[in-house]
Design a protein that fits this description.
CATH architecture: 3-Layer(aba) Sandwich
Radius of gyration: 18 Å
Oligomer: single chain
Strand content: 25-35%
Bound molecules: S-adenosylmethionine
Number of helices: 6
Shape: globular
CATH class: Alpha Beta
Number of domains: 1
Largest sheet: 10 strands, mixed
Number of strands: 10
Length: 286
């Protein structure tokens, strides 16, 4: 395997966080057309080498970058850090908590440092608990600290695992959240298999919330476009089509796409990382 040196850039992330209120049926227009643009602090990102020629195992390289990027971010920014995407939970998550009306066992897949885990525990009906799963041990160590600081330790369990091989301990999920996590698996088959496991683990009336950053591409200042570095390069259409197929027969509360963009400077030249944020919330039949 030939390892290429990865160039680095400082990127400023601007992601559209426009949210369609939970409870809206699939296909209906957003309640508000006003975009709520979330500006995220500059972070150091690895980018594809200059000519885009790739001679190594793409998955290994993308996974290595996923770990490096998140470890660096979690070291430099804490939950609530203004200007970072850790500043606050995504509104899609907060609005969806209202769909859960009794105490549940909830799961936060790819939980990071607990941006959603903690508000889930605090916002779900009393008696609920959350299992948070993540690949990165240091992320979970911070999550555990954050839970303790919020007095929520007894209702949070942290599990260090790769979602691709992890199985739900029981078919008891009243809520499953996977926000910007499932695009970090090795194949479309693995993506589908995880969704199937989520579906199977959900109790009647339970809710699944999936956020996917799809259609990731880099656009150089000269307009040249190429795929961005990510384990599973999903198109928005692919992601939505798999989600709709997997959750056939469920009530679809949110089924939306929003454009997102990351502007970065590399060697003095501007590049843009473009993507589509897929937001999907489905509820199992009662
Ligand atoms: C973009 S962050 C999102 C974190 C959290 N969901 C949030 O919205 O704040 C993606 C997280 O998924 C985790 N992750 C990536 N691939 C994973 C995998 N295959 N299994 C488990 N966790 C994974 C990363 O370690 C990282 O913490």
């Amino acid at each position: 395997m030939l390892l290429l040196g990865l160039s680095k850039a400082w990127a400023t992330h601007e992601a559209s966080a426009e949210f369609g209120a939970a409870g809206r049926a699939m296909g209906n227009p957003p309640a508000s057309a006003a975009p709520d643009v979330e500006r995220v602090q500059s972070v150091e990102m690895d980018v594809l080498p200059g000519d885009g020629t790739v001679a190594i195992d793409e998955f290994v390289r993308a996974r290595r970058e996923t770990i490096r990027y998140h470890e660096a971010l979690y070291r430099s920014a804490r939950l609530g850090t203004r200007g970072s995407w850790l500043a606050h939970p995504h509104p899609l998550v907060m609005d969806s908590l209202g769909l859960v009306t009794r105490p549940v066992h909830a799961y936060d897949l790819g939980a990071g440092v607990g941006r959603h885990t903690l508000p889930m525990v605090a916002g779900l009906p009393s008696g609920s608990r959350v299992t948070a799963v993540d690949l990165i041990p240091s992320a979970l160590a911070s999550l555990v600290e954050n839970a303790a600081a919020a007095g929520l330790s007894d209702r949070v369990e942290a599990v260090n695992a790769d979602l691709e091989s992890w199985a739900f301990p029981a078919d008891d999920a009243g809520l499953i959240i996977a926000f910007s996590a499932l695009e970090h698996v090795s194949s479309l088959d693995a993506f589908c298999a995880i969704l199937e496991r989520c579906r199977a683990a959900t109790i009647p009336g339970g809710v699944n919330l999936i956020g996917i950053v799809a259609d990731r591409e880099e656009v150089s200042s000269s307009g040249a476009r190429r795929a961005a570095l990510i384990e599973l390069s999903l198109s928005g259409e692919q992601a939505l089509s798999v989600l709709r197929r997997c959750f056939t027969g469920w009530e679809i509360h949110v089924d939306e796409t929003n454009p997102a963009a990351v502007t970065e400077e590399r060697n003095g030249a501007q590049h843009e990382l473009r993507s589509t944020l897929i937001k999907f919330v489905a509820q199992a039949p009662h």
